[in-house]
Design a protein that fits this description.
GO terms for molecular function: DNA binding. It is a single chain. With 206 residues, the protein is an all-alpha fold. It has two domains: 45 residues, Arc Repressor Mutant, subunit A (Orthogonal Bundle); 151 residues, Tetracycline Repressor, domain 2 (Orthogonal Bundle). The protein contains eleven helices and no strands. α2 crosses α3 and α4 packs antiparallel against α5. It is elongated. The model has no long low-confidence stretch (mean pLDDT 92).
């Protein structure tokens, strides 16, 4: 039998995803579960505590995805596997992307951790690019900070792709994630060498 705290987090995640953060209170979560708000408050005194737990769940899932990429046949396939898996993680916790600005404004703990996380992800990305260059999968930089700026474009896109889709009236589903992955992956294509292009094409067509 699941612990009450786990059920609270699962219920909150579904409500946040379906209704949006502004419409979901502790009382909403308690009523959906059929428990008293006092019972819920025993586990989480503030809604922010639930949001923080869900945020760190998401971070842990992404960390696991990155660590599992070592099974890929080459660094480019590993990168593409990570990118696609991350989209599924973001979909599972999509309220973060839909209510991203509000969360950053209201939750200093998440904001501080996210700022630190961005620096770590940038370092990991640049290390990956060095490996891709060593394997002659991507070309050398032709512009100042070209690959650092590629990372920045990528994280902006990953933070806001779900919000952009929703404002355009496009429903995000598990089935449609592949098309968004291809949109993002194509942004990497101009940097590939002939060898990299062949690996990319084989991966996409597999």
């Amino acid at each position: 039998m699941k612990r009450t705290k786990v059920i609270i987090l699962e219920t909150a995640l579904k409500l946040f995803n379906d209704e949006g953060l502004p419409k979901v209170t502790l009382r909403t979560i308690a009523n959906t579960m059929g428990i008293s708000q006092g019972n819920l408050n025993y586990h989480f005194k503030k809604r922010d505590e639930i949001i923080e737990d869900l945020y760190f769940q998401l971070v842990a899932k992404i960390d696991k995805t990155i660590n599992n990429s070592t099974t890929a046949r080459n660094s480019l396939e590993g990168f593409l596997n990570i990118s696609k898996s991350m989209l599924f993680c973001f979909y599972e916790y999509r309220f973060f992307l839909l209510d991203f600005v509000q969360i950053m404004r209201e939750n200093s703990k998440i904001k501080a951790h996210y700022a630190m996380l961005l620096k770590l992800r940038e370092q990991q990305f640049l290390e990956l690019l060095e490996q891709l260059k060593a394997e002659e999968i991507i070309r050398k930089e032709q512009l100042p900070n070209e690959y650092r700026n590629l990372y920045k474009r990528g994280h902006i896109l990953s933070d806001f792709w779900i919000a952009a889709a929703q404002t355009q009236g496009n429903e995000i589903t598990l089935e449609s994630i592949d098309s968004y992955f291809q949109i993002m992956a194509q942004g990497f294509y101009p940097y590939l060498t002939e060898k990299g292009s062949a690996i990319y094409t084989a991966y996409i067509n597999a």
